[in-house]
Structures are given as structure tokens and as C-alpha cells.
Write a structure and sequence with these properties.
about 30% helix, binds guanosine-5'-monophosphate, globular, alpha+beta
């Protein structure tokens, strides 16, 4: 599949669409999932185009996984999580819906199920969670 420069995450990266940003550096960008399956559910992307893991370069993968670890550590602490799940989907058959490489960082608590997919969060709650995560990242 060719990379679509107008996919929703490309537009967020260009600042054309809003997001609740939690972290950025020269190579990567992280923001809250708009339909979080857990409090603090964060998406981590390379800034440069890649459809998914299959076409990503070693440089994209190495920078993005370090940001995934950074977010996972901060989210575990910020949300007092017992664990963290990392998810990453490739191609429609693999469950991918947005075709710019991204990793999901999902805080998990013992005995607490993930919420069902597809439910938009209250923007005020997302705003508060992004602030909580940014503070943990700055600590
Ligand atoms: P995937 O491609 O990994 O299957 O799913 C894409 C993810 O992006 C979903 O968890 C969905 O909730 C999230 N998502 C889709 N559109 C937007 C958006 O406009 N903003 C944000 N922050 N997340 C989105």
C-alpha cells in the first residue's frame, strides 16, 4: 500500500487537526487516542511517513520504540498502572485503521478490562490526562 499523505495522523503531525499531545522530539510524536480503551491510552508515531511496521526503516523503528518505552514508563507511573500493554497493527487484515505507523501504549490495572473500542472520550478528560502524562514525562 502506498502512503497516503492525507491520512488522519499525517494531518495531526502537520498541525492541520488538533490532538492532545503528550510528547515530541525530532523523530517521534505522541498524543492521546481520541477513543481511549484505558485512561492514558497513547499513540506513538514516527514523524516521517511509514504505512506500518512492514515498510518502516530501522531508523524509524529504533526511534519510535524508545519513545514507546518513555511513554510506557511515564504512563505506568502517572496512572498508577499495574502494567502496560503495547499494541501495533499492520494492514487492514491485521486490524490497522489509520495507515501511518503507530504503537498503542495502554496502561493496565489488575482486574480492569479494556473499554470497548469506538467510544469517543470527553475532551476535558483527555485534556486532564494529557496534562497528567506530560507532568510525569517532565519529572
Ligand atoms: P489502529 O489503526 O491502530 O487499528 O487504530 C487507530 C487508532 O487511532 C484507534 O485507536 C482510534 O481510536 C485512533 N484514532 C482515530 N482517529 C483519531 C483521531 O482523529 N485522533 C486521535 N487522537 N486518535 C484517533
Amino acid at each position: 500500500m502506498a502512503y497516503d499523505t492525507n491520512n488522519i495522523f499525517a494531518r495531526i503531525l502537520r498541525g492541520e487537526l488538533p490532538c492532545h499531545k503528550v510528547y515530541e522530539d525530532d523523530d517521534t510524536f505522541a498524543f492521546l487516542d481520541i477513543m481511549p480503551r484505558a485512561d492514558g491510552h497513547t499513540l506513538v508515531l514516527p514523524r516521517s511517513p511509514a504505512v506500518n511496521l512492514i515498510d518502516a526503516t530501522p531508523a524509524q523503528l529504533s526511534s519510535v520504540i524508545l519513545t514507546v518505552q518513555r511513554i510506557a514508563r511515564a504512563a505506568k507511573s502517572a496512572f498508577a498502572a499495574d502494567g502496560v500493554r503495547i499494541e501495533q497493527f499492520n494492514e487492514a487484515a491485521g486490524g490497522q485503521m489509520v495507515f501511518h505507523l503507530h504503537f498503542h501504549v495502554l496502561p493496565r490495572w489488575t482486574g480492569v478490562d479494556l473499554r470497548p473500542p469506538g467510544k469517543m472520550a470527553d475532551p476535558e478528560v483527555l485534556k486532564a490526562h494529557a496534562e497528567t502524562l506530560r507532568k510525569a514525562l517532565a519529572a
